[in-house]
Fold this protein.
Amino acid sequence: MGFGGSVQAMISTIRNNARPKKTAFRTRKKDNDIFHLKSRHLVCKTIPTPDLERIKNDIRIKAKKESKRQRLLAVLIISPILITIFLMVGYKIDQYPENKRLEDRKYKKMISTEKKINYILEDGSYFVNRGDYKKAKTVLFKGHQLKPKDFRINFVTANAYVLDCIENEKQCDTATTLVAELKKEYGDKSEILDLEFLLEQK
């Protein structure tokens, strides 16, 4: 056999032994058929309703237990802190000197009295400016009882009496007495001299 015959025999052998070619269409179609074939036999596992309720109930019970455990843990952590703070505050109160307590009480009382005096002065001045001297005298009398030596109360009171004397000719003797007492107690302040001048011009 010549060289050409050998080559021809080899080509024939290769062709006979070659596997059939797969096209892309056939391959996808075959894979798709296999997938659907398998999916037909796929069965989802279901849980019976009683078992499902039991599982849910178990989950709820575990959640409640966990919540109680966390609350108990929080109480155990916070309680010592609160007790420590309480003891520290109590210790500081016990160590606070008695004279300091008395000073604080006096200071608070003084602040409270000053607030009342300011309120009375505002109220009394309001009635004086409106010409309602009767109400002004009533309000200012309360201030005089609260703090008899307060210059502001005494001055506004004397002012109310002086103006009532000038405008309505009422209680002029009392007005004169109050101005004299102011001058004696506080000296020749300009405000007092003005009241004295008003009485002299009447």
